[in-house]
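Batch manifest, entry 17 of 40.
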Amino acid sequence: MDFTRRQFIQVTGATAAGLAVSGLGFDLKPIKAHAQMLKTEYAKQTTSICPYCAVGCGVIVYTSNKGDGRVIDIEGDPDHVINRGSLCSKGAALAQLSENKLRVTDPMYRAPYSNEWKTVSWDWALTEIAKRIKTTRDASFKRTNAKDQVVNHTTAIASVGSAAMDNEECWIYQALMRSLGLVYLEHQARI
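Output type: structure tokens
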């Protein structure tokens, strides 16, 4: 029998593959399947948008109907025009964002030159933020520029928006920032 080198490699490869598969112990007999109840069977479904980037992928959030409102699962929305049910790795792990024992849920403050963070109340945190914005704005606000043109702005404060906001929220947010006189308005998705 006259074998070419190529035929020899093909026959050897096929033989090796056959031996490898036969050694795995495949059983082709039919088996009985057992269906189980899905954990989202009786959960409340709510559509939402993934907060990670500016793509705006649609998600379906399943929450418990036992009154505690806990998130059971989050999956891509197959009816959404942008992602058609698919999610990136960050979007696929969205349920961990809301149901995570390590998630910080209270504001924390680290004083200047301190090495420790301390938990503070929401009232204290929001009041402190408002005071610091007002102090900085009052100290740096310019009514006119060097050419004596009216500018009414501050360049000492910048704002970075969030991809988790929809168009209406973005408009309200930028209107608030512009009313404070901010010049530097940016969006998280562009950075």
